[in-house]
Each structure stands twice: as structure tokens, then as C-alpha cells.
Design a protein that fits this description.
The protein is an all-alpha fold and 436 residues long. It has one domain. It contains 22 helices and no strands. Helix 2 runs parallel beside helix 14. It is globular. The mean pLDDT is 82. The complex comprises the extracytoplasmic solute receptor protein and the two transmembrane proteins. It is found in: Cell inner membrane. Its main location: membrane.
Length: 436
């Protein structure tokens, strides 16, 4: 069988079983094992086992359950509620002030938890009712929460970045450093969009009445709410950038910070620890199975010799090296609408990375573009996770159609961010070059 027919059959089988609704890990692993057996025979399984064993010995993997555990604890401490009260007092006097405050809280959450969804649920529960009660347009309120909630996988620490580093072999610390400036860029671009839009259409997000803006003593007292989150961020990112800890050891520092936060907010209870631990075991188990499947997929793909075919197809894309990068971004953008981000990484990165490196592009820079695309995937229909998180907590009067419509301008802002990072790669590469 020709390599073209084999590649078509391989990816067609993956797509077929995924559309049937079967779990990604078992589809990816099962199809790969079948193709391995018929292309290389039984001995190929030893190669997969050897690769998996090498991954399981990776110290970096320990960071995943630790960051997940940290996120599970921080979700239940009450940090988000106090942060929102502070933003309410300081930003409420501006048109769109509550939306800007919500963005800021999402960025802080992103710098603490490392996963998407935590900020969406927290702000959907706390900020959304407050904005709707004060006359905010529902599309503006929903779009802000949806966008900011996705930053958890871009602003470090990020579990998706750890997986990217494991699959591609780049430094986790460099990926974390590379995510800081693009995260700030997207936050600034989104804030500019909100301010300009609310200036042109004041009815979308009215300023709070004077009696709700608080006195100066109240505002300064509310600033105490940021001390613990800043402390957690410094414990995690500061220890990495300062060279005190590795990213894995910094995850343990983050867990310590989360436990201290729970104690300060008087939420340090056995029931919370137990629930957080069980959810961590579930998520970590799922991630590990997906990693096993990734190795089987990578081995099967390489054994078929399809790498040369894909490189040949990519070389036919007009526009030279930049045309190839843009084509990759479009492919990932479209896949992110229908597939899980981890699955997209496992399917595309073994194909894309050799091409990216052969063209002379920085894999760290490409990783940031890739992660931002995954972030957009969290907020775009039909299967964006953030859309369903929101639908689960919004009032019955808000439909799925409302949520879908709300994200359109914010997706455009994110795409502008990607274009700027492509034009000015230093936005992503400056900090890694400085610190590492």
C-alpha cells in the first residue's frame, strides 16, 4: 500500500472513531497500535514501551498533578470573591470598569492555576450576575469572562505548556517565560477593545453610580485581596525565574501557597482536600493515558514514513516558510473548534515540529502561537470547553446562541495578537533569552 493511501487510512480511522464519541486516549492509542502491528509487526510494541518508560522517568511530569492540585484548592478558597470586590471598588467608576476588573482577575487566576475553566467558573458565578444587574450588555459580559478564562493555558504556569515541552523536548522554564509577554499583550489588546467599544457605545457597560464606588479607605482596605494571589504567583514564577527552583519544584511551592491561602480564608478543611485530591487523580490519570497514546501515535506515524509525505505537501504551500507557518496556524485553528487541545497537540506536533525546525523557526516562539490557538479553541464553537462551562452557570434567560455570538469580537482581538507575535517574535522570545 502506498504511503499516501496509508496516511489517508490512518488519519481517516482516527477521525471516524473520534466522531463516534470514543475517548481520545483509547482512539489514538488503539488505532496506532493496530497500524504498528501491521506495518512493523509485534516487535514494534517494545519500541513504544521503551518510549513510555523514558517519559515516565521524566521529573517534569511531577509538575502536572501538583499544578492541578493547586488549582483545585484555589478554586475553593474565596480568593476570586475578594478580588472581585477590590476590582469593583477601583474600576467600577469607568465605563466598562467591571469588565476590565473581570479581565484583571482572570489574568491573576491564570497566573495561579495553570488550567482553563477555573476563572470561567469563578467569574461566571461572581462577576456575571453583578454585571448583568448593573445594566451591562450580556454579550460584553459573557465575552469578557470567556476570553479571560482561556488565559489559564497561556499565562504561566500552564499544564498545556508542560505537555508541549514533553512532546517537543523544549525547556518548560523557557515556555513559561515566553508566555508572560504574550499574555500581557492579549490582556492589553482586550482592554483597549473594551474601552474603545464602551466609549463609542456607553449603553453596553455603564459606569457604576457614585454610591457604589466606595470611599478611599474602603478601596485601600480592599487592596489586601491581592496580597495572597501575588504571593502565590511570586512563589511559583519568582522561584523559577530567580533560579531557585525548577518548574517541577515550583509546582510544589504553588501547592504550599494554595494551602496557605486556604488556611487564611479559613477553608482548610479535610473535605476540601479530599475533593481536590480525587479530582486531581482523575485529571492526572486522563493526562497519563493520553501521553501513553501519544507515544504509540508518534511511533506508528514515524514507522509509516509519512513524515516525508507531510513535508512534501507543506512545501507545496505558497508563500515559502511563512506560508507554511500560516497554513499550520489555520489547520490548528480549525481543529481547535472540534477537538480537545491535548488531542490536537498529540496529532499535529509530531508532524509540525520537524518542519518548523527545518525551516529555522524558534520552537519556543511556535509553541506560544500554538498555545494561543488552543486558547482560542477553548472559546470557539461548536465544542469550546469555556462555552459549556459558561452555559452550566448562566441564568436560564441566556441561551447557547447568546454565548456563541458574544465571542466573535474577542476572537478577532486574539487573532490580532497572534499576528503581532508573528510579526514581532521578540514578544515571545525576549524573556526566555533574558532569563535562560
Amino acid at each position: 500500500m502506498s504511503i499516501e493511501a496509508l496516511t489517508l487510512l490512518f488519519f481517516g480511522s482516527l477521525l471516524f472513531f473520534l466522531l463516534l464519541g470514543l475517548p481520545l486516549a483509547f482512539v489514538l492509542g488503539g488505532v496506532s497500535v493496530v497500524f504498528l502491528y501491521f506495518t512493523w509487526g509485534f516487535d514494534s510494541f517494545y519500541m513504544v514501551a521503551s518510549q513510555i518508560w523514558g517519559t515516565m522517568e521524566s521529573f517534569t511530569l511531577v509538575a502536572i498533578p501538583l499544578f492541578v492540585f493547586m488549582a483545585m484548592i484555589l478554586e475553593r478558597t474565596g480568593v476570586a470573591r475578594d478580588l472581585y470586590r477590590m476590582m469593583h471598588l477601583w474600576c467600577g467608576g469607568l465605563r466598562g470598569g467591571l469588565a476590565l476588573g473581570t479581565l484583571g482577575i482572570c489574568a491573576v487566576f491564570a497566573a495561579m492555576v495553570g488550567i482553563s475553566g477555573a476563572a470561567v467558573v469563578a467569574m461566571g458565578t461572581i462577576a456575571l450576575p453583578s454585571m448583568l444587574e448593573r445594566g451591562y450588555d450580556k454579550s460584553m459580559a459573557l465575552g469578557v469572562i470567556n476570553t479571560g478564562g482561556g488565559w489559564g493555558i497561556l499565562i504561566p504556569p500552564s499544564i498545556l505548556m508542560i505537555l508541549y515541552a514533553l512532546i517537543t523536548g523544549v525547556s518548560v522554564g523557557k515556555m513559561f517565560a515566553a508566555g508572560i509577554m504574550p499574555g500581557i499583550l492579549l490582556m492589553v489588546l482586550t482592554a483597549i477593545y473594551i474601552l474603545v467599544r464602551c466609549h463609542l457605545q456607553p449603553e453596553l457597560a455603564p459606569a457604576l453610580p457614585k454610591e457604589e464606588r466606595g470611599t478611599w479607605p474602603e478601596k485601600f482596605r480592599a487592596l489586601r485581596a491581592v496580597l495572597l494571589p501575588i504571593g502565590v504567583v511570586v512563589m511559583v514564577l519568582g522561584s523559577i525565574i530567580g533560579g531557585i527552583t525548577t518548574p517541577t519544584e515550583a509546582a510544589a511551592m504553588g501547592v504550599l501557597g494554595a494551602l496557605i491561602s486556604a488556611a487564611v480564608y479559613r477553608q482548610f478543611k479535610w473535605s476540601i482536600l479530599k475533593e481536590a485530591a480525587i479530582r486531581t487523580f482523575k485529571l492526572t490519570g486522563m493526562i497519563m493515558w493520553i501521553l501513553f497514546a501519544a507515544h504509540a501515535f508518534s511511533a506508528a506515524y514515524q514507522s509509516m514514513g509519512a513524515q516525508e509525505l507531510i513535508e512534501g505537501l507543506m512545501n507545496m504551500v505558497p508563500g515559502g516558510p511563512w506560508g507554511i507557518i500560516i497554513a499550520m496556524m489555520v489547520i490548528v485553528f480549525l481543529l481547535a473548534m472540534v477537538l480537545d487541545p491535548v488531542g490536537i497537540m498529540l496529532i499535529t506536533l509530531p508532524v509540525f515540529m520537524p518542519i518548523v525546525e527545518s525551516l529555522g523557526f524558534d520552537p519556543i516562539w511556535f509553541g506560544i502561537l500554538f498555545v494561543i490557538n488552543m486558547e482560542i479553541g477553548y472559546m470557539t464553537p461548536p465544542f469550546g470547553f469555556n462555552l459549556f462551562y459558561l452555559k452550566g452557570i448562566v441564568p436560564p434567560s441566556i441561551t447557547m446562541k447568546d454565548i456563541y455570538k458574544s465571542i466573535i469580537p474577542f476572537v478577532i482581538v486574539e487573532i490580532i495578537g497572534i499576528i503581532l507575535i508573528m510579526i514581532f517574535p521578540e514578544i515571545a522570545t525576549w524573556l526566555p533569552d533574558l532569563f535562560f
